[in-house]
Amino acid sequence: MEKREVNIDYFVCRNSFPEGYESLCRAAIEASRKAYCVYSGFAVGAALLLDDGTVITGSNQENAAYPSGMCAERTALFHAGAQHPGRSVKALAIADCRDYDDFLARMRAEGYEIKEGKTLSFRVPGWDRFTRSNKLGADYTREALRERIL
Q: Bridge-partner residues for 93, per DSSP?
């Protein structure tokens, strides 16, 4: 089996947008309005920018077997794979959290335990130990997360 690595620029957008990705972020926000989230109440939208400039959107879709459902990113990626085979994803924008506190609330809702001491730490459901977010790299420090949730 051949292994492949995927590198995609991604952003979590709400109020301001990274330069050059304004329309992609707006498309993600618009897609979040089409979410079917009657069980969780968390409307999420995603927008993919393909290598040919095409923008594909998706939103989370829940069902009666909640929490089973499809996240916005998968919805968009599956559509892109089915309708645009052979195209690669250049960037992904996700419209989700309003702010850092909303991000932490959603992590807790997914079963993560969060510690906010000197550094931000979290424990993945089923794991024994906490992980310090700064050990995951510079993009995952508390400050970087606050900056990326625009």
A: 11, 47
Q: What would the pLDDT profile of 27-46 be if each residue is shown by its tens digit? A: 998 898 898 888 777 778 89
pLDDT at 111: 76
pTM: 0.61
Q: Of residues 140 and 21, which shows the higher confidence score?
A: 21
Residue owning tokens 């195209």: 87
Which residue is catalytic, options 2, 73, 113, 147? Answer: 73
Does residue 73 carry a catalytic annotation?
Answer: yes
CA distance 136 to 87: 30
